[in-house]
Amino acid sequence: MTLHLTGVRLLLITHTVLVFCDIEFLERPQGDSVEFYCISEFNASKPIGLYLKRKWLQPNREVLFMFTEQKPVFNLDVKERIHVTGDPSTHRVNVTLSQLNGKDTDVYYCEFVFLDASSVDEKIPSNMEFFLYVDNVEDVPDNKMDVGLIETCAGGSAVLPCLAPYGSPSAMEGVCLKRRWGRAPVEVLFHSKRTSSSAAFPPEERLHLATGLGGLAYNLTLLKMQPEESAFYSCELLLPGRPDNSARLGRHVYFVSVQGVRCSCTGYPPLLYVLSAAVGLLLIFLLALGVAHYGKTRGDRVKPQPHQASIYEEMVGVRSPNRNGKVAPSYHPRPPLHLEEMDASAPPPLSSQQENH
Question: Which class does domain 30-134 fall in?
Answer without folding.
Answer: mainly beta
